[in-house]
């Protein structure tokens, strides 16, 4: 039985809407603050660096060009000086860090989750498999290679972003790899109060179904930041609410009260023996599964736009097709 305590921190703070460097500074400061509180796992919101593309939710496509291009300029290349700074902070403090970034890969942007182990090693870079609604104007799609649980200092950690949690097969792919701590990322300050309610239901359900702890982080926007995104009071309503930073036990309970307003850092101790206690009753990918009736086919190959066959003396055999084979 896994019998130890992990102290986790879920960060709810505002990004710097003006620069990648400003947001990275806030990340590093929050890592230091959470580590001072004894945190061993520190989780940040969805695409926190440089910021979530809130503009795409309230502006029509014809008005998004300048903001979208600016996001390209401020997005994060992996690896880069920015990712190295986070890796160095993780290593210095001996903490596991899960950070959401807008990743730039040449001419495309992706919603990417990065997991740094406590020695600073980047152990996972995964991309959101399907951007949601307005986000499809901003980001490309990820692939099955990112649906991966990784071993870290704090245990087996898996991660999904936002409405990926509404894809039960994506969640099952992580559950089947026996995640012990699941990390959720949402933008926060979006849609309204109903979004926070939906996040809470989703996080509590995944904890129950996976028999895992869930550490979920959402972002926050100050009123002046909301005004900088849109001057229309009606559209500004869509940039409030939606904050549900929370830490949930495998029994589906809040370990500490959630954070739904303002900036702050939730800190809670995760009693890892509760993972086995829950799975003893219901292990969705073990004794409670019926693989002969229902099973998941997970294509974990990285997506490739080009498969290159280099010139060599070897020839590629082309099969002869008989009539019955066609």
Instruction: Tell me the structural class.
Output: alpha/beta
General shape: globular
Q: Quickly give the CATH architecture.
A: 4-Layer Sandwich
The helix content, as a percent range, equals 25-40%
CATH class: Alpha Beta
Mean pLDDT score, rounded?
A: 95
Q: Helix count? A: 9
Q: What's the total number of strands?
A: 11
CATH superfamily: Carbon-nitrogen hydrolase
How many structural domains are formed by the residues? Answer: 1
Lateral arrangement of strands in the main beta sheet: 5-4-3-2-1-11
**Approximate strand percentage:** 15-25%
Please tell me about this protein's structure.
The protein is of the alpha/beta class and 326 residues long. It has one domain: Carbon-nitrogen hydrolase (Nitrilase/N-carbamoyl-D-aminoacid amidohydrolase, 4-Layer Sandwich), CATH 3.60.110. The chain is 28% helix and 21% strand. The protein has nine helices and eleven strands. The protein has helices at residues 20-36, 55-58, 65-74, 81-93, 168-175, 193-210, 223-229, 233-236, 273-281; strands at 5-12, 41-43, 96-105, 108-116, 122-127, 150-152, 155-161, 181-186, 213-218, 246-248, 264-271. A six-stranded mixed β-sheet has the order 5-4-3-2-1-11. Strands 6-7-8-9-10 form a five-stranded mixed β-sheet, covered by helices on one side. A hairpin with a 2-residue loop joins strand 6 (150-152) and strand 7. Helix 1 packs parallel to helix 4. The longest helix is centred in the middle third of the chain and has 18 residues, at 193-210. The protein is globular and about 55 Å long. The termini are far apart. GO terms for molecular function: aliphatic nitrilase activity. Its EC number is 3.5.5.7. It comes from Shimia marina. Pfam families: CN_hydrolase (PF00795). Belongs to the carbon-nitrogen hydrolase superfamily. Nitrilase family.
